[in-house]
Amino acid sequence: MVKDYLKSIELFFKGSNFYRGLLLTCSILIPLILFYLIGIFAYAPSVAIGVFLNAPSDIPGSLRRKINGILLSVIITTCTTCIILFAKPFLPILILLLTVITLFISLISAYGFRGSLIAFSGLLAIVIALGVKKDTATDILIHSVLIACGGLWYLLFSLFSHWIIPKKDEDQVISQTLLLTGKYLKVRAKLITKKSKRIALQNELFSLQTQISEKHETLREMLLTERKRSGRSHFDEKRLLIFISLVDIFELALANNLDYTKINTHFSERKQHLKPFKNFNFVMGNHLITLSELVIKGGRIPTKNKLLKALNKASKGIKHYVDDVQLPKAREGAMMLHNLYDYQKKLLYEIRAIRRVMANVNNASHLKLKDTEAAQFITSQEYSPTIFFENISLKSPIFRHTLRLTISILVAFLLGQFFEIRNAYWIILTIIVIMRPNYGLTKERTKNRILGTLIGALFAIVIIMLTTNPIIYAILAAISLMFGFALIQQNYRVGATFITTYIIFVYALLDPNAMTVVKFRVIDTLIGALISFCATYFLWPNWEYKNLDDVIESVIKNNTIYLVATKNLYHSKNTDNINYKVPRKEAFLAVANLNAAFQRMTQDPKSKQIELDLIYNIVTLNHTFLAAIASLGSFIQNHDTRDASKQFDMFINHIKTNLDYTLALLTKQTPQPLTNNTNISEAEDILLYNFQKLSKKRNKEIEAGKTVIDKALLNDLQEAYLVYNQLLWLKGLSENLKKSTEKYVKIFNHI
């Protein structure tokens, strides 16, 4: 336990989050010290404020977007500061401008995560401008220009640090993706035997899938965009190879979505035969977690002995099962184990590919990704002005959040004016930091913010009671800022604790009555949290069930495209087909978005979790449907398959018709008539007959004393078994999805 704790501390100090916190602290301290030495310290705080305001948009991503993001942030924070300071003496004008600027800046969140951080910087500029005292126009202009200088200084300092350690962010995201993928494999292992915990484990998988998909998107932007911009380097090629293997592992893991009803049928009394396969997944998951740590801290790659030993035990597990049950009774269970074993061997192949890349083995892999193909994998964030104006509507969750936030800020400001609250802008700061577009995240951040503030205040009180030494306050303020900024994304509660101690120690340096500062800090935080929580609940609340139509529609649409792409793959046998891989990526992202939406819905108040079981069923059906397509696609890519049959095409067309019908229900269009089930029944009989024919052939071989099956016959048996079962499964899933959607539409059309 202590060893794991020390390891996590080491990983934190060597990771990019701590590095970014250190970068911010140094970029603030350098001008403070420099201006002090040359005798113009009075200008230093404005530069420090400029650094602090414009650092948030410095997040992992392409270098070009990082530069553009910080430059836009500098323009917005500088202009906002200048306007608010000039308007402060004129209360009616200030209230009007406060409203307009808050509305404008908040809507920048429509441009994705980086846009939301730029918006946060702009809102933060409002808060600091309300707290700063500048009496003359000259002072205001100098202060605003110095804020711009601080932002530009931070940009230059960040670019310099990027030049020194260019791949810190990439390593961090690669490490996090390896870690999440390792955890994902371990949860999949538990699903094999933990019958009573499958719903909880499935929910855990949904959460991990969402996180992994988000990391994949970040890596696509970082690796593929950089590759397009500056060409190939040895380092970039290595990281791209690791990323490609991680995507393949994720698809393979998702593709092997076992039919647990059949697992229970065949292995409920023989769970011991599943344990080698469960253990193999655990070993591979732990190996990926170890590799994730080595990306950050370096060190020797662990031996592959445990992996090979687990592979050997899984291989013997199939024979033990056949010996126990005996053929032909054991055939279907053995086929399931063979498919599971094949999938795990492919996982091991990808893990060993990652090992070879990390170990710098020459010619570890050959990358065949053209730049034109790479561009198709990047989900570009559009920055058209049209997006801004499209979101000015009550139908837009971002606009509703903008209205809530603007009203909350005005209430806090007027409250401070009316009651003459000291440092009332702290209330506004709390609102900006806590309030989020959805109820669940706002509630979570409220709780963590209050706890973090109380813990930070308590710590600061103890230090202030022990000493009045300003040097100690300055050192603790610098350390608190560094850790607060480093942890705010990773652990909000701990980050909020350090931010609180930073603010209190800064005020302790300026105000001898520091205990009063602590008291007001805590009270203002509580008031701001209360306003945020009430506004999120009562003002145009963004209950998740109202946003599900578009998310479900996107999943069904992308799953349909992916299904057709898989059908085409079976016909063409072109495993490097970009027309298959791009729809696969889009389908994975759509399901991840649905998973995230469902997770947010579970955080809403119980009264707003309308038909939660039905929604969960739709989420599970869509997830399972995607997994079944991925299973089929994975098999086609990794096996020498026969030509696709007419019956296969009939099944795919029937399934697609069910999906089109379901999509029409959601979009309130007239559904096309469903296909004749008689033809599908005939196709099903033919596919079953093909599998039975091969099974009989194998039975005759066994009767003749041939105990070892030919590789070609085994491959044909696996293909016939998998194609028949996956098509049958997809057909059933599409029909269940249609029925669930009919019920969903009927209920939610009346809400």
Task: Briefly summarize what is shown.
This protein has 28 helices and no strands. The chain is an all-alpha fold and about 750 residues long. The chain folds into four domains: about 170 residues, no CATH class; about 210 residues, Methane Monooxygenase Hydroxylase, Chain G, domain 1 (Up-down Bundle), CATH 1.20.58; about 140 residues, no CATH class; about 200 residues, Methane Monooxygenase Hydroxylase, Chain G, domain 1, CATH 1.20.58.
Task: Describe the model.
This protein has about 750 residues and is mainly α. The chain folds into four domains: about 1-165, no CATH class; about 170-375, Up-down Bundle (Methane Monooxygenase Hydroxylase, Chain G, domain 1); about 390-530, no CATH class; about 545-750, Methane Monooxygenase Hydroxylase, Chain G, domain 1 (Up-down Bundle), CATH 1.20.58. It has 28 helices and no strands. The chain has helices at about 1-15, 15-35, 45-55, 65-85, 90-105, 110-130, 135-165, 170-195, 200-230, 235-255, 260-265, 275-295, 305-325, 330-360, 370-375, 385-390, 395-420, 425-435, 440-465, 470-485, 490-510, 515-540, 550-570, 580-605, 610-640, 645-665, 675-705, 710-750. Helix 4 (about 65-85) packs antiparallel against helix 7, helix 18 crosses helix 22 (about 515-540) and helix 23 runs parallel beside helix 25 (about 610-640). The two termini are about 50 Å apart. InterPro entries: Memb_transporter_dom, YccS_N. It is found in: Cell membrane. It holds the Pfam family FUSC_2.
